[in-house]
UniProtKB/TrEMBL annotation, chains A, B:
Origin superkingdom: Bacteria
Pfam families: HMA
Protein name according to UniProt: Heavy-metal-associated domain-containing protein
Annotated GO MF terms: metal ion binding
Location of the HMA domain: 3-68
Amino acid sequence: MTTTTEYRVTGMSCGHCESAVRAEVSEIAGVTGVEVSAATGLLSVTSDAPLDDAAVLAAVDEAGYEAARG
Amino acid sequence: MTTTTEYRVTGMSCGHCESAVRAEVSEIAGVTGVEVSAATGLLSVTSDAPLDDAAVLAAVDEAGYEAARG
């Protein structure tokens, strides 16, 4: 079953920032898709099982930004 | 003899942008140092011979931004 979870990310300013977030979040086990927009701050993560929010928040932190469940 | 040449770059918004410009400009033959700031848009290039402006402008363009001799 596919699950899509939304988060809000602050601090992204450009496409490089989007790429940094996408790269980190894509590494999480079970993640099958990542959409992220610096313009809106929205991060949408598709996974084949319910996501571990903490893992997503940690991945965004690793990329250098802050996120909250949207 | 060391030469430092100043340019103004538009469009950089974050540290990733600075890194992209720095990486491209650093590849130019003779370049010994690059300082770049997204906040001010200033790019300062140090070289061991007078710089070819066209090469610097092309490197910045390659990184995805626009520059002019400052």
